[in-house]
Amino acid sequence: MSKIGLLGCGTVGTGVYEIINERKGNFFEENNYKIKKILVRDASRKREGIPGELLTDNPDDILNDDEISLIIAVMGSYEQEYPAIKKALQLKKNVVTANKEIISKHMEELLGLAKENGVTILFEASVGGGIPIIESIIDTIKINKINKVQGILNGTTNFILSKMTKEELDFDEVLKVAQDMGFAEADPTADVDGFDISRKLTILSSLCYGAYIDNDDIYTRTVRNITLSDIQAADDFGYVFKYMAESELYDDNTFGASVTPVLIGKDSVTSNVNDEYNVVSINGNIIGQLSFLGRGAGKEATANAVVADVIKVLTKSVHDYTHLKFENEYKSCGIERYKNKFYLRVSIKDEVEFAKTIDIVYRNIENVNLSYEDGKVFLITDELTGEFMSTLCDRLSHVTEDVFYARIIDNIL
């Protein structure tokens, strides 16, 4: 019988333990697989419901145990987890991980190590929480060429934007609620500044395009600057805010990739994906658009995805991810191919800032739909390139400190 080693006993690790050792999952009611050892930072600290003899603070107690053939890595720490995963694969142990930072940086290397040692590494939980998007992509690319990935990939920020919209609250108020509910970390930087999402987009894009997409090539903007006045203005214009991940492969072997706040129409399916839910769409040359919806944050959703991979390993029903290749080479074109209408809000303090702002706007944008209220200029532009809009806002930022803009996406599910 396979014994399992668990690296990490935080929110996700505890959920995984409960499903396996406490027999909460149907599969484990009928099959006697067990987590034998759990790596924690402090083995002397008691954890409710978990026997102390299972705990260790020495990774070698797990990695060098010949009875353990499967390692579950959910520590959330790059520095500790990356060497542990490498060593596990080298010792011919299968690995299941939820660590998106490690997979986004080292997917090709780790798949190569797994192939070399006759084992597998699965990472469904690294993207989309409870959505089985990785396996779906691997199935789809057997037939299709995929040229676009688009979606809401972070449950925390979607929860924040949804609550700001529904309850008309400011960003900081809702962030505190998200932290109290366990959706947001004490340090929310990875979520609200887009690093979590860009890593997920790196993984999805690399799989879809058969090329390593560097995280540094993903244009990323924070959602911290969205104010209640932006939420209300968007509503007046017929839109809602979402934090969108997008990548697209073009015919000339270039790609564009971004993680940015966007506005989408109230009546679209995507605009009604709220709270901690995620949605991911991919576009295949034969199948067309495929969309996947599910919970993207929380203990249960991520633990479910981890354990689903565990069962694939235990039942030997796993796809062979080691056949994946990343041989294609594409050049990033940034956001220069993006062409959309834009929402722009400029907060001004006095008449001088107002005059300078209006001058810059009218000298650079035609057919301006502009309004002014409570010290803020709001406008919707005609179609502009992403690069042009970014440059324009840089100019405006020399006039006033508070400038915010978002693309408007009309052609979305």
TrEMBL record:
Segments forming domain Homoserine dehydrogenase catalytic: 132-311
Binding site for NADPH: K100
One Pfam family recorded for the sequence: NAD_binding_3
Gene Ontology molecular functions: homoserine dehydrogenase activity; NADP binding
GO biological process per UniProt: methionine biosynthetic process; threonine biosynthetic process
SUPFAM superfamilies referenced in this protein's UniProt entry, alphabetically: Glyceraldehyde-3-phosphate dehydrogenase-like, C-terminal domain, NAD(P)-binding Rossmann-fold domains
Keywords tagged on the record: Amino-acid biosynthesis, Methionine biosynthesis, NADP, Oxidoreductase, Sodium, Threonine biosynthesis
Residue numbers binding NADP(+): L7, G8, C9, G10, T11, V12, G13, T14
Leading EC class: oxidoreductase
Residues annotated to bind L-homoserine: E185
Metabolic or biological pathway, per its Swiss-Prot or TrEMBL entry: Amino-acid biosynthesis; L-threonine biosynthesis; L-threonine from L-aspartate: step 3/5; Amino-acid biosynthesis; L-methionine biosynthesis via de novo pathway; L-homoserine from L-aspartate: step 3/3
Protein name: Homoserine dehydrogenase
Source organism phylogeny: Bacteria, Bacillati, Bacillota, Clostridia, Eubacteriales
